[in-house]
């Protein structure tokens, strides 16, 4: 099982976001504001975003956890703890 | 008599260049047949015709750029008589002489007669792209030998020859965002000018359908999950069968309901603007199939690869602005359609049931419809049918 540092997780999240919203400058994403609002992500894009994270981290992300992925910081927290569980 | 007009191939299209006719006067054509190739900002599109008949007259010649809505050809249909439209000759076929085209209101479009080609022109996609970038009219490019496919080299040769004055170079088009704004402005202005909208709104308890989707998604892998909007697409398509006058078009002063439901999905583009391409025959599709189709459609909208029929033939539009947090959306009908249905945000609200105040997931669902084609009473019945269908989510499967 891969172990990811928080910086690596941040990079992966921003890469996934960049694939969906290429015009968004990742350095402009405020870590404690909702990602969807900042990157103008709709439910379809958000699902693709989740699918990308799922494919990279190899973890299931149930729908009830979507709210944990609201902001960059909360998403890093969530993914770090989920990856640790899997170890 | 059927008038075959330049179709609107998406909200960003104001005009198209007729690159090739695949039919000639006297030919028999069938519904769904590709009859012409039209060059748009998004590349060449195969344009289908949606009538059976015999070609009466080709009105617009190959090479001409004409606005959306302009008469391209006339068709004799079974039992139809020759109409005034059939008398329009090539010389007359300016935007002023035909019925008002959808998008000429912006005042920036002109018919641009171009050199007539004696043979069908075949163009490689990269040559087409190069010509576009260089501002070269592709119809003015001649292949190196008669009948050959036009290549990048041919375009470059034409561009060089242009220095000596033999080429009609076009001005560089403005960026597509600006063009899309112009196209949306024109279509929406026409809608508000011509369509007497009426608006209905109702709050629907969607707890059952939302819970049903959540429990379905628990059983599914991430990539097979259904978006909450999908059962609404299904229910809307089914409810339209009960009030068919909301599904179709208002054309030539009369209502033309469609037997098929091609559900136009309002999809926003990154960076602004929107398109509302169709999911064909949405009424006959399962939830799973609708999700597959929606995924395919949104992916292609965002990468700019749509087919002409899905751009041009939605019979009704569905907008899901609720996901941006709005409570209710009263839409502007996309002409010549006659209705647009809006889904607002799904939120928990106090709800009275059996004399008790309970917490329910509720959404405001709206209908904006063309009063020429339907009445408020019938519109109300549609919303009642939608409510009923949404209470039985298993029936939406």
In short:
The complex is a heterodimer of chains A (87) and B (397). Helix content of chain A is 57%, strand content 0%. Chain A is built from 4 helices and no strands.
Please give a structural write-up.
The complex is a heterodimer of chains A (87) and B (397). By secondary structure, chain A is mostly helical. The model of chain A has no long low-confidence stretch (mean pLDDT 90). Helices cover 57% and strands 0% of the residues of chain A. Chain A has one domain: ACP-like (Non-ribosomal Peptide Synthetase Peptidyl Carrier Protein, Chain A). Chain A has four helices and no strands. Chain A is globular and about 35 Å long. Chain B is an alpha+beta fold and 397 residues long. Chain B folds into three domains: 117 residues, RNA polymerase II/Efflux pump adaptor protein, barrel-sandwich hybrid domain (OB fold (Dihydrolipoamide Acetyltransferase, E2P)); 38 residues, Dihydrolipoamide Transferase (Irregular); 202 residues, Chloramphenicol acetyltransferase-like domain (Chloramphenicol Acetyltransferase). In chain B, 26% of the residues lie in helices and 25% in strands. In chain B, the strands form five sheets. In chain B, strands 9, 12, 15, 16, 17, 18 and 19 form a seven-stranded mixed beta sheet that branches. In chain B, a hairpin with a 2-residue loop joins strand 4 and strand 5. In chain B, helix 1 runs parallel beside helix 2. About 13% of the residues of chain B have low confidence. Classes of the chains: A mainly alpha (87), B alpha+beta (397). At the A-B interface, helix 3 of A face helix 4 and helix 6 of B.
């Amino acid at each position: 099982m891969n172990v990811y540092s928080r910086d690596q997780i941040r990079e992966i999240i921003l890469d996934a976001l960049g694939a969906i919203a290429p015009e968004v400058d990742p350095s402009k994403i405020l870590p404690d504001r909702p990602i969807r609002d900042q990157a103008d992500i709709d439910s379809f894009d958000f699902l693709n975003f989740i699918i990308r994270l799922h494919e990279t981290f190899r973890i299931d992300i149930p729908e009830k956890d979507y709210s944990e992925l609201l902001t960059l910081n909360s998403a890093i927290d969530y993914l770090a703890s989920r990856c640790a569980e899997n170890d | 008599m059927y008038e075959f007009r330049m179709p609107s191939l998406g909200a960003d299209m104001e005009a198209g260049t007729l690159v090739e006719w695949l039919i000639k006067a006297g030919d028999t054509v069938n519904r769904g047949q590709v009859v012409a190739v039209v060059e748009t900002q998004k590349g060449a599109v195969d344009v289908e015709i949606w009538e059976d008949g015999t070609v009466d007259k080709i009105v617009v010649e190959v090479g001409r750029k004409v606005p959306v809505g302009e008469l391209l050809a006339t068709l004799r249909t079974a039992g139809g008589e020759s109409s005034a439209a059939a008398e329009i000759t090539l010389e007359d076929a300016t935007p002023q002489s035909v019925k008002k085209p959808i998008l000429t209101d912006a005042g920036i479009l002109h018919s641009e007669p171009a050199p007539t080609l004696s043979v069908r022109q075949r163009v490689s996609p990269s040559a087409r792209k190069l010509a576009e970038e260089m501002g070269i009219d592709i119809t003015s490019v001649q292949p190196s030998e008669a009948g050959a496919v036009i290549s990048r080299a041919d375009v470059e040769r034409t561009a060089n020859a242009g220095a000596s004055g033999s080429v009609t170079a076009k001005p560089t088009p403005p960026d597509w965002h600006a063009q899309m704004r112009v196209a949306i402005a024109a279509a929406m202005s026409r809608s508000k000018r011509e369509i007497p909208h009426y608006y209905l709104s109702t709050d629907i308890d969607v707890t059952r359908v939302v819970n049903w989707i959540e429990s379905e998604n628990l059983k599914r892998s991430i990539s097979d999950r259904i978006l909450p909007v999908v059962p609404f697409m299904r229910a809307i398509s089914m409810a339209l069968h009960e009030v068919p006058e909301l599904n179709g078009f208002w054309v030539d002063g009369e209502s033309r309901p469609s037997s098929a439901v091609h559900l136009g999905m309002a999809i926003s583009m990154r960076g602004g603007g929107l398109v509302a391409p169709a999911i064909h025959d949405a009424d006959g599709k399962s939830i799973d199939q609708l999700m597959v189709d929606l995924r395919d459609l949104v992916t292609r909208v965002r990468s700019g690869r749509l087919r002409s029929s899905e751009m041009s033939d939605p019979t009704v539009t569905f907008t899901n602005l609720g996901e941006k947090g709005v409570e209710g959306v009263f839409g502007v009908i996309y002409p010549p359609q006659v209705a647009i249905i809006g889904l607002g945000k799904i939120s928990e609200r106090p709800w009275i049931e059996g004399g008790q105040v309970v917490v329910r997931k509720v959404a405001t669902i709206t209908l904006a419809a063309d009063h020429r084609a339907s009445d408020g009473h019938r519109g109300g019945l549609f919303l009642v049918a939608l409510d009923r269908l949404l209470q039985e989510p298993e029936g939406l499967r």
